[in-house]
Design brief:
This is Malate dehydrogenase. Belongs to the LDH/MDH superfamily. MDH type 2 family. It is an enzyme of class 1 (oxidoreductase). Keywords: NAD, Oxidoreductase, Tricarboxylic acid cycle. With 326 residues, this protein is of the alpha/beta class. Helix content is 43%, strand content 18%. It contains eleven helices and 14 strands. It has a six-stranded parallel β-sheet with strand order 3-2-1-4-5-6, sandwiched between helices. Helix 1 packs across helix 10, helix 4 runs parallel beside helix 5 and helix 6 packs antiparallel against helix 8. The chain is globular and about 55 Å long. The N and C termini lie far apart (42 Å). Bound molecules: 1,4-dihydronicotinamide adenine dinucleotide.
Length: 326
């Protein structure tokens, strides 16, 4: 049998955690023959630690053959010790009347501390996936703490947006989701994101040839994908959790599968017109130990104008947290 992979999950007693941990432990993320050790971090309050224990009790009660061990802690240095994957889900939600700048800064503090701890104690091959919002800026802050681990180990999740975008195209065209390919998300995980329908395909044909109503694509499709998170909160009274956990499973599984092509928020390195040093969604192809950005898509003026909007937002977020970038 294979040696176990250590997976840290922060915010493990939260909503996404509850939809995520059981699927990791059952082998859906890293393979049905891959033992895992879960290292679960929660804040030190009695309520959170007690809820975490409850989740761990349920994990135990599943008798998952692949779940070799669990660590429950409120200490980042314990949670990230020797981990191969760190899934940073926990973050502080926006409270009533709270400004976006305060949210960015409050969360920034969490990601400074966690970035430092990961760099100090995680395994040499550690990879980090940030879900906690604002995830593009949080991952940038964490990555800037790293002295040992290279920046390309740090990614943030735009896969939920890709999955949402594919589903909406399939629904409009009346085809199976499997017919939709090459739909990639550019930029920020926020309503400014650009779901690039201009290069996406349905049944191998350009989306724009299958869905010829350009006004629908620009004025209905893009806002529907961009504001889907808010629509879920409106309908459910809670933010998306099962679909977010599912997207994280997809994000990690595909990063661990050489050849997989998918949308990931990565260090832009100035690609596709994004500012150097911001983390932006773009298409990547997974490699044996990381990813390479797919740089071959030519953007037309419309796509460039959309990328500019989401890039401006990312640059603005970076400006707000510039004192936190080390
Ligand atoms: P939640 O509020 O149910 O759970 C978050 C958990 O994180 C709580 O249990 C909290 O105690 C914990 N936490 C807070 N600060 C922490 C810290 N410093 N260390 C460890 N744990 C900490 O929230 P939910 O629904 O699970 O969502 C988690 C995050 O994921 C939110 O920031 C949300 O905005 C984000 N999200 C991101 C998506 C994406 O596509 N990137 C999609 C959906 C949600």
């Amino acid at each position: 049998t294979k040696p176990p992979i250590r997976v840290a999950v922060t915010g493990a007693a939260g909503n996404i955690g509850y939809a995520l941990l059981f699927r990791i432990a059952s082998g859906e993320m890293l393979g049905k023959d891959q033992p895992v050790i879960l290292q679960l971090l929660e804040i030190p309050t009695e309520g959170a630690q007690k809820a975490l224990k409850g989740v761990a009790m349920e994990l135990e009660d599943c008798a998952f053959p692949l779940l070799q061990d669990m660590v429950l802690t409120d200490d980042a240095n314990v949670a990230f010790k020797d981990v191969n994957w760190a899934l940073l889900v926990g973050s502080k939600p926006r409270g009533p009347g709270m400004e976006r700048a305060d949210l960015l800064k409050d969360n920034g503090k969490i990601f400074i501390a966690q970035g430092k701890a990961i760099d100090a104690v995680a395994a040499d091959n550690a990879r980090i996936a940030v879900v906690g919002n604002p995830c593009n800026t949080n991952v940038m802050i964490a990555a800037n703490q790293a002295k040992r681990l290279p920046r390309n180990r740090f990614t943030a999740m735009v896969r939920l947006d890709e999955n949402r975008g594919r589903a909406q195209l399939a629904k409009k065209a009346g085809v199976s989701i499997n017919e939709v390919s090459e739909l990639f998300i550019y930029g920020n995980h926020s309503p400014t994101m650009f779901a690039d329908f201009t290069h996406a395909k349905i049944g191998g044909k350009a989306v724009t040839d299958v869905i010829t109503d350009r006004a629908w694509l620009e004025n209905e499709y893009l806002p529907t994908v961009g504001k889907r998170g808010a629509a879920i909160i409106d309908a459910r009274g809670q933010s998306s959790a099962a679909s977010a956990a599912n997207a994280l499973i997809d994000h990690v599984r595909d990063l661990a599968t050489p050849g997989a092509v998918h949308s990931v928020a990565v260090d832009s390195e100035g690609r596709y017109g994004f500012a150097e040093g911001v983390w932006a969604g773009m298409p990547v192809r997974s490699t044996a130990d990381g990813y390479e950005v797919i740089t071959s898509y030519e953007m037309d003026d419309f796509a460039k104008s959309k990328i500019k909007i989401t890039n401006d937002e990312l640059v603005g977020e970076r400006e707000t947290v510039k004192d936190m970038l080390g």
